[in-house]
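Our preliminary data section would be incomplete without showing what the modeling component actually yields. Below, a chain of 527 amino acids is followed by its predicted structure, encoded as tokens that our downstream tools consume directly.
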Amino acid sequence: MYSILIVDDEAIELETIEHYVPWDKIGISVAGTARNGKEALGKLAELKPDIILTDVRMPIMDGLEFGRRAKQIDKNVKIIYLSGHNEFQYIKAALNIEAAGYLLKPIDMEELLALLEKVKKKCEEEQLADQSGDWMREKLLMRILREPNAEKRKEWANQWKLSAADFAENKPFAAAYATFDPAPVYPGTAPYPADSASTDRIELFRTAARQRLDTFIMVEDEPHALFILFQWQDERQQAQSTTAFWERLRTDLASDASSGSQVTIGLSDPHTGFQEIWNACAEARACNEEKFYEQSGAVLSPQDLKPTKQTDDESEQIAAKLSSAIQSGDSEQIGMHIASFFGAIRGERIDRNFAIRAILRLLTALEQHFSMLLAGSLREWLLVDHWKEISSMGSAAHMQAYVMHFCNEMRKAANDRDIDRNQAIAEQIVKLIGERYHLPLTVEEIAKEIYLSPNYIRTIFKEKMGETILDYLTKFRMNKAAELLKDKALKVREVAHSVGYENVSYFCSIFHKHRGSTPNEYRKMYL
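Predicted structure:
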């Protein structure tokens, strides 16, 4: 039975094709469905369908772009295009991607079934013509890797042996597991562009392997992950340059990776006998998982594996330090505390699951401390599932970047909140001066009124208003005095008392300093 992947952005069309086409009767099973090309591309490596039935016009990634990339990943997959647009350019573009067929909507069931029979026949012809080729070997290798039963794995390994004539059975082979871990995507920020270089990486792997390896087979285990089973041209080359070869390849791949992506290659020791394929690949995957403790991408072999510690790290103390640094707006201290926290995880080699628990406890403590911020300017973080985000990351380095970003967002929000609060304090002082300028008023009395320390309000007022409280009070009084002096019925002494000065001489001195004339001279000049 062959498998098919159905791709259509219209829910009704998708459901109709999935449930009303008699797939069982024609020997085809529905491996999965997708609503656009990008989603389908993500499922392609996992489902490994023999046939794809896809709409042409879809959002995010259309069917033609999806088909082009699908062919790069699996050159043998058969693609049937659907379209409601009877336009020559679509048909021409589809044929350029080696389309197996092209149908117009609404779909004619008889026409679809007839085309599927032709596609099945083409699959059978290619399968018979390529029993010992890559297509069959890749299918069998994936079955070996995903089979949980050891006895059944032996059966698949025996079949793989028949299809892999270019692999020498009595010669050692090894496995590599390469991953491309993208940088975390944060709430409120645009994700990195889709990694269009994934198919180019596969070709880069193939090109490098052809130059240095005796024989190899490569399968895409899942999006952003490749298994490579290989044999060296000679044992001396194997012993001398295994790590160097893969390190050069990793460097080339890293230079092509999307921003922030971490490229890691795990290597197995040499194994002999095809019954060991599963063990070799499991060993390579385990080595790849050692990337959790690496600051960046690396090539890792069994010699790099070390014991881990299953213990809960203390998060409360670091949470308190981080909260203080966030509150004070000290980004340098934030970075130091986070680096210390993750440095301890790496240095003590805390087991990944235990490390994730410690990180989640840290984030939870910070959320509780800054709950008002999360309810306010950081509302987009309220719905974030930290466990889902953190557990999907392969390395502590990416987890560290995630925590750092979260703390910096809270630092900025806390700073913005403080700025707003300080502005409100300054405005409160201005209002108080406007109401009580005619009374003997000191900074200490103002501080008592708003329940803050004198030094604190001096600092805040100067920062927000650009002058001291005393300077502002004096200027305000002099402006009021100038207005009162316009009333000839008021004596200078009465004006002085009205703006808070008991000592008339002192008032006249201050007025002269601010207006460049005595109160009486001011009256003569302006009245």
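Residues 180 and 224 are 5 Å apart (CA to CA). The beta strands are 2-7, 28-34, 51-55, 78-83, 101-104, 174-181, 213-222, 225-232, 262-267, 299-300. Preliminary results of this kind motivate Aim 1 of the renewal.
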